[in-house]
Predict the 3D structure of the following.
Amino acid sequence: LDSFTAAVYEHAVLLPNATESPASREEALLLMNRNLDVLEKATKLAARQGAHIIVTPEDGIYGWVFTRESIYPYLEDIPAPEVNWIPCRDPQRFGYTPVQERLSCLAKDSSIYVVANIGDKKPCNSSDPLCPPDGRYQYNTDVVFDSEGRLVARYHKYNLFAPEIQFDFPKDSEVVTFDTPFGKFGIFTCFDIFSHDPAVVVVQDFEVDSVLYPTAWYNTLPLLSAVPFHSAWARAMRVNLLAANTHNTRMHMTGSGIYSPEAVKVYHYDMETESGQLLLSELRCRPRSQPTYPAAVDWSAYARSVKPFLSEQTHFPGLIYFDEFTFTKLKGKTGNYTVCQKDLCCHLSYKMSEKRVDEVYALGAFDGLHTVEGQYYLQICTLLKCQTTDLRTCGEPVGSAFTTFEEFSLSGTFGTSYVFPQIILSGSQLAPERHYEVSRDGRLQSRG
Amino acid sequence: GAPLPVLVMTLYGRVFEKDPPRLGQGPGKLQ
């Protein structure tokens, strides 16, 4: 196949009621089956529309508010795919596995690959010094069943998010890939996307064509919203990314999409309703073989080639998601600015359609270790609208803007080749690719 | 190119060599 139809379902997860004591196995299965009823409908609809594969979200079967004890009734023993198992045909082979049986039958009956996120339990004992006191490991696990219902992939999430106390870390990062008639696939989960292992490794060393990406992402403006961040990752890593998010407006969870290296094919962002959403799009099986495959970018080439713009500017600090940026205010309708922090210098040239007195923009730079809800080292150049005209609000979430930019060019002296370009427009919409481009020497710039 | 109502324009770089051994740790939200 040259192309395939991908499906992603943003699912409004039915969450278990908060109870004092853990649910019984029967109650747990009842809740999971209610979620699987919804996912089944979406999968059948996707299959009817010709989809080859459907991705459903992380925690999509039972939710995310658990302790180690309370999630136990929801867990099953999930074997390694090497056992060549079709649960729909042989449901008893690995004990009590109703969820795997149902997912397998759904894939088999609808002739579609089904990707889901469930929980794996593995017994251990005192001979294993790392064995938890309750005698078992519990893993946040992605599973993939092929169109015959065979278990073809199992991935244990490596980079657990700080609140995920119900799960254990695998001893090592797993790189899980599998081949299909429509390309080579990798898979990892949510917070893993910040990582080198497995996220970069699965793309660069294992050269997958597409990545399956179940996630339960809550949006944090201005820099960590699902659709902008995930589409930027797909663009920079130059692979297809099938991102299925959970849907919960109270927790700002929304933002699913099907992203190709060249463009955002389709995305969904909905803070208005409590409904799930099925997305479909056609993708190239092997993006690297396409003439339109984006060239590699040398992200610091341009920025290192120009002298810093030393216009009259004052710097001030501002926090974005607990990281202290160095900011400078954009004073005029047009101009050139440079702001630096440690080894990183960010250059901006811009021209606004008009300079509004009621809106303020700032250019910011951050070069440091982020340490909240995870620890990872960032180098960021950002142009953003401040929440009000008070410079102390620069970095706070902003949802709308009336100032329009006719021309812009943003670049930075990055010490990394992993830079993810984002442009978010008013209303948290993505900027269409026809309006901007990334030059090979590292400028995120307006077209034309 | 049409004028764009920009909220945020970002180049978000990750420097993996400077990461701690595991991302999924952290002191939690400072609230």
